[in-house]
Protein: Cupin domain-containing protein
Organism: Maribacter cobaltidurans
Amino acid sequence: MDRKKFIKATGLGLGVTLIAPQILSGKSQKDLSVENKNDPKIIKDDEGETINVIGDIQTHKILGSETGNQIMEWVDNVEPGAGIPPHVHTKEDEIFRVIKGEVEIMVDGKTNILKAGDLAFAPKNVPHAWKVVGTEKAKMITSAFPAGIEVMFHELSQLPPGPPDLVKVGEICGRYGISFV
């Protein structure tokens, strides 16, 4: 067996690929784990910053600044009829978990009604939308990874009250890699 085939077959090449950058940088595995450490956090149901993002009442629970920009999570607490029209993210994946009420969700052209305990995954570059259906408010935990979308939400929450200026909304969302379809 030649050398390249041996390294490939035994996985030694992978080990060298993973370890060599650490050795060259002079950092041990312990040093790297300290750099990537995120502080533990407990967030109670009534805690977090609540903002109104064009009718989507969001309570931001954990931000990218607290997770090394790995994930951002918020709770949507919205009235029947509220929702987000079909759109596509180019930067983040999203997971939607319904806690209370009913949410009609469309992912990649397939529509389902989610109830308490149900979830949906909307990968980046896949069209998706959601709308609260039924007669009661819905509570939904939404996760976006990687984080960063919270900056856009804050910008959208600063728009004047009343019917949204869809051109302005589209411009803001576009800067964050989101387009409406």
Remarks:
- Residues 171 and 179 are 9 Å apart (CA to CA).
